[in-house]
Amino acid sequence: MVPPASRPLANLDSQADPDLVVGQSDAMRYVMFRIEQVASTDATVLLNGETGTGKELLARAIHNRSPRRARPFVVVNCAAMPATLIESELFGRERGAFTGAHTSQMGRFELASRGTVFLDEVGELPLEVQPKLLRVLQEGQVDRLGNPRSVDVDVRVVAATNRDLVEEVRAGRFRRDLFYRLNVFPITLPTLSQRRDDIPLLVQHLVAKLGTALRKRVDTIPDEVMRTLQGHSWPGNVRELENVLQRALILSKGNTLSLGDAWLPVLDNMAGGGESATLTDIERRHIVRVLSGSHWRIEGAGGAAQVLGMKPSTLRSRMLKLGVARP
Question: For 150, which of 22, 79, 198, 218 is 20 to 30 Å away at the CA?
Answer without folding.
Answer: 79
